[in-house]
Each structure stands twice: as structure tokens, then as C-alpha cells.
């Protein structure tokens, strides 16, 4: 009964006004629903690292110098370890290890 009344009243100009209202209300409602309370609705707990887990950027001259030395030491260790690991891999495969010329 009520449905028939709505269908009879939504003809012509009333239908156009109703459609225009829906065209305006739907995007506004959509933006309101997905734009409010974002922190609780769409958050993943533990996604971003905490202050303790993230890197601390050095700003002082001594801190920067210490960080550069640490990185250089790490790279030197990797360079020193790389030929030894390569020789070990070749030995494990059973191939002959090529002699390295150290008189460079």
C-alpha cells in the first residue's frame, strides 16, 4: 500500500527531484562513511614500527662519524668474507679452486 503510494507520487518532476537528491546524497554519504573514524576502522595494529624498532637518524657530527665508521667496517667485513665463502662453495662442489694473485 505504501509502496504503491510512493510509486504514484514519484512521477515526472517528483522523480527528477528524488533522483537529484540521490545523486547528491549517495556520494556525500559514501565520503562521510569512509572518511570518519579512519583510525579505528581501517587500521592494522602493529603495522608501523615503533620508535624503538625504527632507525635513529644521527644528527650530531660524532654520531654521523660513528655511523659511517660502522658501515665502512661492515662493508670491509663483507669484502673480506666474500672470497673465503666463494672458495668454500667451490670446494663443496668439488671443483678446483683458482689461485688468487695477491701481488697486485
Automatic annotation (TrEMBL):
It comes from the Eukaryota. The keyword Membrane applies. One of its GO terms (molecular function) is unfolded protein binding. The keyword Cytoplasm does not apply. Keywords: Membrane, Mitochondrion, Transit peptide, Transmembrane, Transmembrane helix. Its main location: membrane. The chain crosses the membrane at residues 20-38. It is found in: Membrane; Mitochondrion membrane. Residues 76-104 are annotated as: Disordered. Residues 76-96 have a biased composition (Basic and acidic residues). GO terms for cellular component: mitochondrial inner membrane. One of its GO terms (biological process) is mitochondrial respiratory chain complex IV assembly. Pfam families: Pet100. It is a single-pass membrane protein. Belongs to the PET100 family. This is Mitochondrial cytochrome c oxidase assembly factor. It comes from Vermiconidia calcicola.
Amino acid at each position: 500500500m505504501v509502496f504503491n503510494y510512493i510509486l504514484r507520487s514519484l512521477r515526472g518532476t517528483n522523480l527528477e527531484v528524488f533522483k537529484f537528491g540521490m545523486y547528491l546524497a549517495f556520494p556525500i554519504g559514501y565520503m562521510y562513511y569512509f572518511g570518519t573514524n579512519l583510525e579505528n576502522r581501517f587500521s592494522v595494529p602493529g603495522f608501523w614500527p615503533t620508535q624503538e624498532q625504527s632507525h635513529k637518524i644521527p644528527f650530531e657530527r660524532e654520531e654521523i662519524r660513528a655511523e659511517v665508521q660502522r658501515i665502512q667496517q661492515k662493508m670491509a667485513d663483507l669484502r673480506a668474507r666474500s672470497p673465503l665463502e666463494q672458495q668454500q662453495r667451490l670446494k663443496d662442489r668439488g671443483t678446483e679452486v683458482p689461485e688468487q694473485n695477491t701481488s697486485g
